[in-house]
Amino acid sequence: MASRSRTTQLDKRFQSLDLLATLVAVVDAHGGVLFANSALEDASGIARRSILGVPLTDWFTEPELLQSALTGATDNEYAVIRYDTRLKRLNHEPLPVHVVVAQTDIAGEIVVELLPLEQQARQEREERLIDQAMANKELIRNLAHEIKNPLGGIRGAAQLLQMELDSRELVEYTQVIIHEADRLQSLVDRLLAPHKRARVVGDVNIHEVCERVRSVILAEFPRGLKVVRDYDISIPEFRGDREQLIQAVLNIAHNAAHALKERIAQRDAQLTFKTRVVRQTTFGRQRYRLALELHVIDNGPGVPEEIKDRIFYPLVSGRDGGSGLGLTLAQTFVQQHHGLIECESEPGRTDFKILIPLP
Ligand SMILES: Nc1ncnc2c1ncn2[C@@H]1O[C@H](COP(=O)(O)OP(=O)(O)O)[C@@H](O)[C@H]1O
Ligand SMILES: [Mg+2]
Fold first, then answer.
1. Which of the listed residues 3, 258, 271, 281 has the most CB atoms within 10 Å of its CB?
2. Is the pTM value of this prediction over 0.70?
3. What torsion do the CA atoms of 18, 236, 349, 194 make, to the nearest 10 degrees?
4. Is there an atom of ligand 1 within 6 Å of 326 CB?
5. 124 vs 128: CA distance, rounded Å
């Protein structure tokens, strides 16, 4: 009874650890679990009710490592100890983790933090993506403004010059200047567009978004391209900007259709829209209870190896006549929904995954 009330008290004190995406346990000097946060509960697949008091060492493939770390911590030999090992999981392969064991100010309470090694790598990659996107936005905005201002002057001057010219041949030159200035102008406008446009927020049904994109793509490629829908219709609606999301998915689907050119000609191109709900997931530095995944998968040749790491950068394009803006805009739009786009690609299968948190 006494130990039970101690547990409840501890639960309250450690409640905020449940909000963390990191796996955390608080243990006593012998490794007995006083608290395990929900991230740890999810990762191990073991309900925490059934593990309180059980030694945490039992959860690892090499229990002696944790045991000696705990001894070191209680004997004040070290303040913090780190090592790599594997966490046992119910119904899953053990999970490689980086373990951080740290003393607290309270005697007999030691904090054990577990960082899944693969998750750590993924998280770092995602953080890089987000930082990049922010740096991109800044760069694009500044650059676009720098180009926009003198451009008006160049075009105006060419027009004035043209009025003074009698020779048709020379007028052709001023025409080229005006035409190219207009082309740059529209590029710059497109670069600035996502930052200018006010967002229209409403209830978004992700399948409506997919269906719209599907009909646009099918109108463009009526033959040779099969569009497969694999929908989880239980996905709830969420607040967002429908038009932005249609544009984002359309940009991704368009790229796929371009990549599928040869297969479309051979009549065996396939584009799949697959939606799923995911629970307890972490992306973009945050943990979400519920999120949706929309995969846009094609059976084309894959993203060219030399630009694979940079496809979300502005002006990076692998094809003639490409602007390299499609994926940059798509990423910006999805990030405005607190989401993220990731890409996995190999010859024969390219999968763009859009993640968006659900309420
Ligand atoms: N599904 C895909 N399959 C193969 N390559 C792709 C795919 N999606 C994107 N890419 C590559 O990424 C590049 C960048 O795409 P994007 O930002 O839309 O610019 P753009 O389409 O104007 O080139 C494309 O040019 C293409 O090389
Ligand atoms: Mg594109």
1. 271
2. no
3. -90
4. yes
5. 6
